[in-house]
Write a structure and sequence with these properties.
With 363 residues, the protein is α/β, with parallel strands linked by helices. The chain has two domains: 196 residues, TIM Barrel (Alpha-Beta Barrel); 101 residues, no CATH class. The protein contains 18 helices and ten strands. Strand 6, helix 11 and strand 7 form a beta-alpha-beta unit. Helix 1 packs parallel to helix 6. It starts with a strand and ends with a helix. The mean pLDDT is 92.
Length: 363
């Protein structure tokens, strides 16, 4: 039986019946154009880093900590922290959960050590692959329904009607019900930077609704050893994915080293469209004039104070016209899916050439 095996179209491979025709594109890295706009890559699983480090990029614009948790750990952090009480409990369900956690943490001194070391090693695997280039790791941005899917998660997570705008991102990190769990993430990053010496790791805080919330998160980070005093070279970025981040940009920028625009969430929150709802999918997208105006403001406000402004959503990979728009606006960096990097470099170089011509003409 003749089949085609496809290992290049996503996280899971495909086995296709018959000999399916395909095209091969070859890119010579020695002829890739140099661009003023930095091009970075989005990384999910740490394993990806081991095959992507050769890409001609400035580093990692988005490393997803939740992917590391899902792929290497699989246990809700609060269940890990509750393990001693679970193991000592008398209820069968507590004992069963404790045994399941023990099985995952086999070979480690404790489930807590398992969680921190696996998280640290996952981050380090990405950081060392791209060293000394910057690797921006975003703190966990699981939504409540996604956290519930982890071992023990149903005990610690609410059932929300719309998790997309619920208990996620920054609102968790200083909250009494999640604060200690966030501390495990801080401890892992601290270990990567101080013990492993990978100081090219920066961090990013997602879904920050107010500057006050941002300040609480920064204070919580410092309490868990991830403040500027202990890590003077640590860069902290905020995701810009809420209308509030746009209209109060300078207040948010005063807290951090810059923005990374999350164009997916920014779009759905500006136009009121749940991207998980199939019935309204396609009504509009990141090219919507309202969304482009928000992006324009974010880039402008970052440029005013000389701070980083990147974008890490899928949109620049999908829409060439949006890529040109970002270059024309003067964005610092564009972080893309791995397979979009090389084509984007060509497109960015052309867009920068067009911008240069336009600037010369206007001058």
């Amino acid at each position: 039986m003749e089949v085609t095996i496809d290992c290049a179209s996503g996280k899971e491979g495909l086995i296709l019946r018959g000999l399916v025709p395909f095209e091969r594109e070859e890119h010579r890295l020695d002829s890739v154009p140099q661009t003023r706009t930095k091009v970075a890559v989005n990384i999910g699983s740490p394993q990806e880093a081991l095959r992507l480090w050769r890409l001609p990029i400035s580093g990692v614009g988005l490393g997803r900590l939740e992917f590391v948790i899902a792929s290497r750990i699989g246990v809700h952090p609060n269940a890990v922290l509750a393990y001693p009480a679970l193991a000592a409990g008398v209820r069968e369900e507590d004992q069963a959960l404790a045994r399941a956690i023990e099985e995952r943490a086999r070979g480690y001194e404790s489930p807590r050590e398992f969680y921190v070391l696996e998280l640290a090693e996952g981050i380090a695997q990405i950081a060392v692959a791209f060293y000394p280039k910057e690797v921006i790791m975003r703190f966990s941005d699981f939504k409540s329904n996604e956290y519930r899917s982890l071992l023990g998660g149903e005990r610690y997570e609410p059932v929300e009607e719309n998790p997309m705008i619920g208990w996620r991102g920054a609102s968790r990190y200083a909250h009494p019900e999640f604060r200690a769990a966030f501390g495990l993430e801080c401890e892992a990053v601290d270990r990567v930077r101080r013990v492993y010496g990978l100081e090219n790791v920066s961090v990013m805080i997602p879904f920050v609704r107010t500057p006050q919330e941002g300040k609480k998160v920064l204070a919580t980070m410092a309490e868990f050893g991830l403040g500027k005093e202990r890590h003077p070279g640590l860069k902290v970025y905020l995701m810009a994915e809420l209308p509030a981040n746009v209209w109060r940009a300078q207040e948010f920028l005063a807290l951090a080293d810059g923005f990374s625009i999350g164009s997916n969430d920014l779009t759905q929150l500006i136009v009121g469209m749940d991207r998980d709802n199939e019935r309204i999918a396609g009504a509009t997208d990141e090219r919507d004039p309202a969304v482009k105006e928000a992006i324009h403001i974010l880039i402008r406000e970052c440029r005013k104070v000389g701070k980083y402004c990147g974008i890490c959503g899928q949109a620049p990979s999908d829409y060439p016209e949006l890529l040109k728009f970002l270059v024309r606006e003067g964005i610092t960096a564009i972080s893309l899916a791995p397979d979009a990097v090389l084509p984007a470099l060509e497109a960015i170089a052309r867009a920068e050439g067009a911008r240069d011509v336009g600037e010369s003409s206007s001058a």
